């Protein structure tokens, strides 16, 4: 799932390439992604893209006083093109394209171009579990999952983080990924933050020492800032899907921990898994896994 760094990179790309262009057409291929009916998506036509920003893991394409809000969910992505096909896309069973936004070739106010090309972007979603969601609203706060967001992760100072974790008895992994507690962090970057902070994913926040909190605070900001730098540098919007690099444990089950060389382990659930290093994070003891560590011993 795209998390804060990837969504930030997409917003960055749109600020550089989409702002100043007018919306010329929107092709909705998958009606089920649209979560709002009023305003209609056709109301965006003719409006200028005036900004792009992030709310937690949501992307906000600002078009004057209307916002196209996107949540990419598990397998959604935004792909920019300087030359979109003019022909309307055909809905098809396996077609990952959900929505296409065409933008004007020139900055508004520019001179007319003889052969305008359709720049713009595609919202795509791979796989069968559909979660991609799009809202068109006058105020981002009208999107329920945005209204419920906790403080944005990069805005957290040490005191605020401590206050959020005081008395918290859920597992730290759960708390870090709960968007209502802290916005922007998901499964991948919580794995990375906890590994960097040398904390067990199952640690109880209320019992963290001051040193643990310092380590967590530094890891949270360090991991996210480095990931934003990498993601923006990758020009995420021109990639076909998220391509994360620089991860130390997430998605690396069975590979060596880059810090200590121990084998990265995983705990898996019905539909997802997380990774950690026992030597770095849990005093060498593997965490309980219902599958009895089938993948790594
Ligand atoms: Zn390690």
UniProtKB/TrEMBL annotation:
Pfam families given in the database record: Fapy_DNA_glyco, H2TH, zf-FPG_IleRS
Entry keywords, A to Z: DNA damage, DNA repair, DNA-binding, Glycosidase, Hydrolase, Lyase, Metal-binding, Multifunctional enzyme, Zinc, Zinc-finger
Cofactor names: Zn(2+)
Domain (Formamidopyrimidine-DNA glycosylase catalytic): residue spans on this chain: 2-93
Reactions the enzyme catalyzes: Hydrolysis of DNA containing ring-opened 7-methylguanine residues, releasing 2,6-diamino-4-hydroxy-5-(N-methyl)formamidopyrimidine
Domain of life of the source: Bacteria
Ranges of residues in domain FPG-type: 248-282
Keyword Cytoplasm: no
Family assignment from sequence similarity: Belongs to the FPG family.
Annotated protein name in UniProt: Fpg/Nei family DNA glycosylase
Organism: Prauserella halophila
